[in-house]
Amino acid sequence: MAGTPHTSVWLAKKGEGKAPRRKAEPGGEGLDRDRIVSTTVRLLDADGLAKFSMRRLAAELGVTAMSVYWYVDNKDELLELALDRASGDMRTPDPSDESADWRDQVRELATEYRKMLVAHPWVAQLVGKYLNIGPQSMAFADAALKVVQRIGVSQDGTTGVLNVVFQFVYGFSTIEVLFKERCRAAGITEDEYFTQVMGVVASQPDFAETHREAAEIMEARMTKSVAEQRQQDFAYALEMMIAGMEVMRDRWRAGEVAGAPPHA
């Protein structure tokens, strides 16, 4: 049951797309868009994007696939809705709280984004593919913009800060998710995998000699779990970025970067 095509569910004009039926389809009592989207998110979390299908969703809901199409036009539309639903998991700091330290709020934004990406591994595959301007996503984006504006950087600096924070978190979390999935598929823990890697390094003197400094760093980190190492790296990198934001703000105020305000 194909509807009027459009590039995004969020760009559909009012009145276009699917309106929920007043009466449920046979076997679909209680079926509505909210239930469909919630079940989609649960299936994507459990099985991943590659195994998801409208037929699998319908079976989980206990309805026919055609019943689902009374509420969404197609799979792409459903994935857009699921993407926005996942974004709703992120807590947003209150940018209007003048007593709050913007640094703490930036930390919260980064931490919440990372938690969401790790909790929903499929999201990283959809970001950029779909236009992520649903109400949940935009609420988080608006809060992030207001927090960054509190730093006191230029307009160009505002977009720069947003890019450096969220692209860093996206890359960091995507690698984290892939590593977790690799270990899960191999049936071993992350710590066991890391121990195996260190064992291979230790058994190859040529490798250890050629990459001596890297090997020493890895060996020193063995006192911590992989999760602890990852959190340490994430926190350190985030503090470096925050320090850089302050430096660039001060340089802008001093007229040392492009677009700087005129000296008083």
Topology of helices and strands:
Elements lengths: L32 H15 L6 H8 L3 H4 L6 H13 L14 H18 L3 H4 L8 H15 L5 H32 L3 H13 L2 H6 L1 H9 L5 H28 L11
List keywords for this structure.
0% strand; 264 residues; mainly alpha; flat; 12 helices; disordered N terminus
Provide an overview of this structure.
Helix content is 62%, strand content 0%. The radius of gyration is 23 Å and the shape is flat. Helix 4 crosses helix 7 and helix 8 (155-186) runs antiparallel to helix 12. It is built from twelve helices and no strands. The chain starts with 32 loop residues before the first helix and ends in an 11-residue tail after the last helix. It is mainly α and 264 residues long.
- Detail the poorly predicted runs: 1-5, 14-27
| Average pLDDT | 88
- Could you say which structural class the secondary elements and strand pairing correspond to? mainly alpha
Shape: flat
Please give the radius of gyration in angstroms.
Answer: 23 Å
Helix-strand sequence: HHHHHHHHHHHH
How helical, in percent, are the residues?
55-70%
CA-CA gap between termini: 64 Å
Q: What count of helical segments does DSSP give?
A: 12
Describe the sheet with the most strands: none
**What percent of residues are in strands?**
under 5%
**Count of distinct strands:** 0
